[in-house]
Amino acid sequence: VPSAPTNVHLVVTGSDNITVTFDEPLRSNGAMIIKYKIEWSTDEFFTNLSSDVIKSCFLREYIIRNLSVGQKCYVRVSASNMKGFGETNVANPPYCTPSNWREFSKTSRTNICDLRFEEIQNKIFNEREGNGMNRSLDGNESSDTPSRRNYRRSYGNLRKNFRQLFQFYPRLAKSIKRGLYLVSVIINSDRILVTNEDVLPMVEVDENYGHNLLTDFQWFMKLTFVWEDLKSVRPKLERCSSATSFYLRMKLVQAATELQTLEEINNLGRLHHAYIRDNEGNVAFVLINDLSSDTRTNVSPSNLKWMTMTKFFELMKESSSLTTNSCLQQIIEKLPDMIDSYYASMHSLDPGLYVAYLKMQNSVDSIRVMVNKHMPGSLPCTKIRSVANVSREEWKWLHTKNNENSTKDESSDNSLEIFKTQFFDAAKELFVMLDLPETHFSNSRIYDSQVVEIRDDLSLIILMSTADEVNILSSPSNHSLASFIYLPVYIFEVFQHLSNNYRFICQYSRISICLDFELIYAQQNQREAFSINELDETRYRLNNLLSCQQDLDDIWRLSRWLVHVINCAKDKTYSGISLQPFQSSTNLNNIKSDRSPSLKSPFNSTKYLIKQNLDSCIDIDNNIIELTFYRSLLTSNSFVPFKLKVNKLTKLNEILQIILKQQQNIFFKPNSLLNFVWVRPNEYEDIIEENLTAYEIQTRLLRFGGQIHIRLNSSSLSNSSQMLHTTLNILPSNLEINSKKPGSSVSLNI
Questions:
Q1: Can you give the residue ranges of the Fibronectin type-III domain (predicted)?
Q2: Whether residue 637 has pLDDT greater than 80
């Protein structure tokens, strides 16, 4: 029989479950391991035990479910070959206590499930069809003949039918002249759908519109999640034509229907999170969709055609119809970023527990939060561990501010100490990523009301600054790090549900839009009610819809955790959990700071950053960074290298001067103009700022990936032979490098 499995560990993954992980035995004794047996009990002698067998030699993880909350669970594991099961190995720690942070906070989780949406939907339609307009308040069936109101309604439908006979077939607009327009961006790989005039498909919504478009813009954003219901939405809007508040929304639905007809595509994509406005008051709503997975992409209508994006941008640059700062020109300039935002909005965090930082931008009329540009559905965060659950002991430790005098079980010391280290390391890494000084760490607070549970396998611990810093009005400005942007709170919430709970946002949008129509229609029917029975019917219907609206608002309010976090951050009486005790307990002052005056903060130490990526094999005490540049050859795939050693505080413009001085006779002509280009993992390119240092470039590459190219920025930029590939090589000072031995030099290719 085989020996016992090794490295048996227990992790609390829920209030009633724990996860067992283990490795294969050191000796299988000549036979292959075919299965493992997991045994657990409430006592250390395993008198009353339960067991289960994993019939796979590759699966070495098991979740023990349906355990008693707060009761110890002892676990041991054994392996089996053809001869049978071998010795057991008790886990380390030998037991775990299933718990959740809600046990300490004494709260219960409210699950937002599909059943509540179905109940509201059934309540809306059942009351309308069975008990709404045909049943009076006392439950008696109405025996009245069609009233004048029904006659007037039928006459109005007749007039609409006559008017539809003279309607023109929808046409695409060639340019944005005046008013509100709907612009469609349909892409497929490297192609884009354009009209025969080589412009983006667009239709006019209305010449006149209100100056406050935010409410209608947010309503139209909800409509983009229910494109399949658009045909059923339009008749409902026509019933609400008398409501002035729905006039622009009716025009938006009509314009979207025309785009569907002209492009022969039902799904027009998602609305870009900001609309475009020019100096003349024209506004454009931009819809973006990717048809890479659609089988109908080879078929296009007669008035549209596919064009490569490279050719499209070249034609737009040469076009004389684009005026300065017009809507179309702004769309063309921002289109690459819009497409990036479209793809980034679908990215979500991996399962686990994260520490996030709330940074806001306040103005008189709006509040914006800082998010990752490449993942706008999440706050800036760093990962603590892969297990999303926070146990009762861990949450209690945070609330007691790392009180070392509190008594704890011996078996939980190990796991709790691991959590302490993981939490503080993640917090340090977060402040390094945001380039925040040390004072921000000591002044920051932990949001202690709850652990934000985005998904069942994704949780956040929120950090925020002091109330005085949060309440300061700030003008919109770009963050020092190009990978972060500010979004309105509502847009962030939509992105967060889009990337983590797409079914929820679709169901909410469908019910919300339907309920808006029904409320307007019920109010209109109440105003037109003539008899007492009609008045009772309409009043009963309206009260029922208001009750449904209240239920829907409760569901949406439960999902808006960010609003509660912002309210706590702005409240001066809210203390939260200070980070200062954690800073003093880990002796931050003993961390060696950087030699540069601009990098005094211990959080800016690159030693910690590289440690997470290179398994502690590189010492950053040496400030020299070796950069190796490669120039591609025309005739082959080989490269001609040249190396350059620079100080990590050397700025980019100084590096360019060094390259021109040393290599102009070899690769470059005198007075050549060079650019550093950051090629991101999604193959989009950004020119790097000249004031960045080699250390900042290294940090950016380690954090976000990609490559650094050097190119000539003149007419030779289009010549592929002038492109240079850059590789960052960091030489450790504590390793003896023998150039004669292969593979002895340590290099990092980014």
A1: 4-100
A2: no
